[in-house]
Write a structure and sequence with these properties.
The protein has about 210 residues and is an alpha+beta fold. The protein is about 45% helix and about 25% strand. It has a domain of about 120 residues. Strand 4 and strand 5 form a beta hairpin. It is elongated.
């Protein structure tokens, strides 16, 4: 048998050229291949979605921790400022009436407010400018502290925490606690209004 005839016989014996070969035999194979391609595509798509979701969760967690940190910093700063505020108010309520009658406590709002501004400014290493206090440490206080009000209080009037039983002074300040860029939001300034009531104190100067 010649070489050409042998090649022809081998070719005809191949499964693609058998008499039992039918085009329908390739359909299951094509379907199987298609399913595998779709499965691979879905797997890759699912993997991409998982990566996006994981990165999204990480971003949300970082943002949450960032906001939580800001909250703690602002809270601690507000507490410290309230302590300075209270000490300055208590000092002013007494210093304004240093020569007063110890039997008849009198309100002296003008002098008390003046004492308060200068004492509170000294506590925050700042300077007084009208009804604002310019802090010396701008990193700690990112802005001016504004004195919103300073008023006399008579017994029976409403004060923070209840009703005044004695005369005194009530003041309200607005304190800048945070200024900076927040992800997805932009630059934000967080301020806090604080009120404090100081009972007026009267004493005699014995000098």
């Amino acid at each position: 048998m010649g070489g050409d005839e042998r090649k022809k016989e081998n070719f005809q014996s191949h499964w693609l050229c058998r008499n039992s070969y039918n085009l329908s035999d390739l359909v299951p194979l094509a379907k199987l291949g298609g399913k595998r391609l779709v499965s691979v595509g879905k797997s890759e798509k699912g993997l991409a979605e998982d990566v996006i979701i994981n990165w999204g969760l990480i971003f949300v967690l970082v943002l949450f921790l960032f906001v939580l940190t800001i909250g703690y910093v602002c809270r601690d700063k507000a507490v410290a400022t309230y302590m300075y505020f209270g000490e300055a108010m208590d000092f002013a309520s007494s210093a304004a009436n240093q020569d007063g009658d110890i039997h008849m406590v009198a309100l002296n709002r003008v002098d008390s407010e003046r004492f308060f501004k200068h004492v509170f400014a000294a506590m925050v290493s700042g300077t007084v400018n009208g009804n604002t206090i310019i802090p010396g440490d701008t990193a700690y206080y990112p802005g001016q502290i504004r004195i919103k009000s300073f008023d006399n209080v008579s017994p029976g009037e409403t004060i923070p925490g209840g009703i005044a039983r004695q005369p005194g002074y009530i003041a309200e300040i607005e304190v800048p606690l945070f200024k900076g860029d927040v992800p997805l939001i932009g630059e934000r300034v967080i301020t806090k209004s604080i009120k404090y009531f100081a009972v007026v104190k009267s004493s005699q100067n014995k000098n």
